[in-house]
Design a protein that fits this description.
The chain has 314 residues and is mainly α. It is 66% helix and 0% strand. Helix 3 packs antiparallel against helix 4 and helix 3 packs parallel to helix 8.
């Protein structure tokens, strides 16, 4: 049993870390096809990470140790979250007992805070603008994340994400309850914000369209590669929670050797999520910056309604 658990742990961790950039590459390729462009290869994020890792890292004058070392800490935090929540294997693995649903939400919030603190440590005025913009929105996004994770645990009277996943997979009607529908809407809206998707954020040369990407302004070389890789892992973690807890909790196997099938099953689920994101990004225009607050307030309202329907109204 110990050997099988070790195999499950290693498979889940390396699958998350190594394939996380791939989904961004697939999305960008499909967007280019919709826009009648050739577009980059689906492996372009890997090429970018390799290229950045070989470049010289320029450290801004006056920056402190936070700026230099927090990117490694962020990678470690997201690596730990990858071993806590059911993102590939639907049964507990090693390090699962490190935290529950609430602990995972707090780790996401801690990572966001530390990334903002490290960016401010650079001393750049442009980064300060990006941090102030990010912090003005994060109080609603982090509140939504924590509220949803607390409320979803009320469905099974436990904070264990694996038990929650097993309950939803074995009780299909629970996925049609009003409480679960509100939670799905809230987390789906949160996923678009946290991963920097249109209509909320547009990464590129237009600084006014950036929120989270603005925190990377002063990073270069290996540190920028680690930050981008951490963002890819964060996107995979949030997307997998959306898929395995809220949208499609079925299809994952926990017994040897069938749990190896979980890898293609997760890739199929992600392709479906990518198609949904593709439709949204290619049909909606980017919101004006002050409208992002209204968007997050709506998501937070859905999470509160979920909490009310899950606990107050039987």
């Amino acid at each position: 049993m110990g050997a099988i658990t070790l195999i499950e742990t290693l498979m889940q961790y390396f699958f998350v870390v190594l394939t996380a950039p791939l989904y961004t590459g697939i999305l960008e390729k499909l967007k280019a096809m919709v826009e009648s462009r050739k577009g980059p290869s689906i492996f372009q994020p890997y090429y970018d990470l390799w290229k950045l890792s070989r470049k010289i890292t320029v450290i801004p004058a006056g920056s402190g140790i936070f700026f230099r070392y927090i990117p490694y800490v962020l990678f470690g935090i997201y690596s730990l979250i990858a071993l806590i929540i059911p993102v590939v294997i639907p049964v507990p693995i090693y390090f699962t007992a490190s935290a529950d649903f609430l602990g995972g939400a707090i780790l996401f919030s801690l990572a966001a805070f530390m990334k903002a603190a490290a960016a401010m440590n650079s001393g750049s005025n442009y980064v300060a603008l990006g941090v102030s913009r990010s912090m003005s929105f994060n109080f609603l996004s982090e509140g939504t994340l924590i509220t949803v994770f607390i409320a979803v645990s009320l469905l099974t009277a436990t904070n264990n994400p694996y038990i929650t996943n097993a309950f939803l997979a074995s009780h299909p009607l629970a996925n049609l309850s009003l409480a679960h529908i509100f939670s799905t809407l809230a987390f789906f809206m949160l996923f678009f914000y946290e991963t920097g998707k249109i209509p909320l954020e547009s990464s590129g040369v237009q600084e006014l369209g950036m929120i989270d990407e603005g925190l990377n302004y002063e990073y270069s070389g290996k540190l920028l590669a680690i930050n981008k890789w951490s963002s890819y892992i964060k996107q995979y973690l949030l997307g997998s929670v959306l898929l395995n807890v809220f949208l499609f909790p079925w299809g994952l196997f926990s017994t040897y050797p069938y749990f190896f099938i979980d890898v293609p099953v997760m890739m199929a689920k992600w392709l479906l999520l990518i198609l949904i994101v593709l439709v949204v990004e290619t049909t909606l225009a980017k919101l004006r910056l002050f409208r992002v607050m209204d968007y997050l307030a709506t998501a937070f309202t859905f999470s509160i309604l979920f909490l009310i329907f899950a606990e107050v109204i039987p």
